[in-house]
Amino acid sequence: MTSEAKPSVRKCGPCTVCCNGWLRIKVRRATISPGKPCPHSGCKGCDIYEFRPEVCVKFKCAWLKDPRSIPIWMRPDKAKVIVRYITWGTEVPVLAAIPVGTKIPKKAIKFLQSASTQYGIPLVMFERFKENGGYKPIMSVTAYGPPGMEKVFEQIREQIKQIEYMGPM
Ligand code: SF4
Ligand code: SF4
């Protein structure tokens, strides 16, 4: 996505959402998942920063990667959603939105739906559910997009679970 806004270089700053379990990842022997933050994430940031896994080095959410299109208020720790671009062999990129918690807040949904319509790109939005004080392993997915996007959603159907994992898309 692009807009007329001037490009800028963003930094994660105080956001540590992708280290806090809202994306699944294995770091050394630890499995990081909703409710289970990375044990290396502390108040001073990553305590193995120089030696963090490659997947951590390479990961950039859409907020970090695309300041032209994703507004400043959508920083994941503030907007309570992580947005990713998926390009798994699809003709157009797909926007994927993963909640920080259970649900994506309405303000963020409104922005994402309007971006999907404006740029003509499909959007998939996830929702988590709580169970016994934790999170259920399965999330629900809602697809949104311009007419004719069913083919694209069909293309990513098999890989949809991978969106929750930090890793290349
Ligand atoms: S979710 Fe995005 S902004 Fe936040 S720490 Fe991860 S890469 Fe940085
Ligand atoms: S190893 Fe460091 S960068 Fe990677 S998830 Fe853990 S705290 Fe974050």
State the helicity in percent bands. 10-25%
Q: What form results from the Cα inertia axes?
A: globular
Low-confidence stretches: none
- Judged by helices, strands and strand pairing, the structural class is alpha+beta
Major sheet: 4 strands, mixed
The string of secondary-structure elements, in order, is EEEEHHHEEHEEEEH
- What would you report as the Rg, rounded to the nearest angstrom? 16 Å
Averaged pLDDT: 90
* Distance between the first and last residues' Cα: 16 Å
Write a short abstract of this structure.
This protein has 169 residues and is α+β, with helices and mostly antiparallel strands. Helix content is 20%, strand content 21%. A hairpin with a 2-residue loop joins strand 3 (41-42) and strand 4.
Keywords summarizing the entry:
single chain, 169 residues, alpha+beta, four-stranded mixed beta sheet, two-stranded antiparallel sheet, 5 helices, 21% strand, globular, binds iron/sulfur cluster
Account of the 3D structure:
- The chain has 169 residues and is an alpha+beta fold.
- It has a domain at 60-164.
- 20% of the residues lie in helices and 21% in strands.
- It is built from five helices and ten strands; from the N terminus they run ββββαααββαββββα.
- The protein has helices at 54-58, 62-65, 76-79, 106-119, 150-156; strands at 25-27, 30-32, 41-42, 45-46, 81-86, 94-99, 123-127, 130-131, 134-135, 140-144.
- The strands form four sheets. Strands 5-6-7-10 form a four-stranded mixed beta sheet.
- It is globular.
- The two termini are 16 Å apart.
- Bound molecules: iron/sulfur cluster (2 copies).
- One iron/sulfur cluster binds at residues 19, 25, 27, 38, 40-41, 46, 48, 52-53, 56.
